[in-house]
Design brief:
With 105 residues, the protein is mainly α. Helices cover 50% and strands 0% of the residues. It contains five helices and no strands. α2 crosses α3 and α2 packs parallel to α5. It starts with 18 loop residues before the first helix and ends in an 8-residue tail after the last helix.
């Protein structure tokens, strides 16, 4: 016997698409990623460097490559926007689920 029904956990029962699936298709700009995950104010000294470091961790690209995207990262490749969305979603899950003392390595 084969079950093909799909259990919907979303509160909007008119569609079978999960909200997280819709969200994962939305691009996330580098500056927005930095606003969410760099724990400094954007006007603090060293913010750009911290932002580049966070973007390098999220994308697995070199800091030098990211630094060459321009002052506001306007020359970033299109594919990076989707990598950053996925990294953002993973960061949110970690923040909600993992305890503060969970080992990072």
């Amino acid at each position: 016997m084969r079950f093909t029904s799909r259990r919907v956990i979303d509160s909007n029962r008119q569609t079978t698409e999960y909200r997280i699936d819709a969200l994962s298709n939305l691009p996330l700009e580098p500056l927005e990623y930095c606003r969410r995950w760099v724990e400094m104010s954007s006007d603090e000294r060293g913010y750009r460097k911290a932002c580049i470091t966070a973007l390098a961790e999220a994308t697995a690209l070199s800091s030098r490559t990211i630094g060459n995207w321009g002052q506001n990262f306007e020359r970033r490749p299109q594919y990076v926007l989707h990598i950053l969305r996925m990294a953002d979603m993973l960061n949110q899950i970690r923040k909600i689920i993992l305890p503060a003392d969970y080992p990072q390595e």
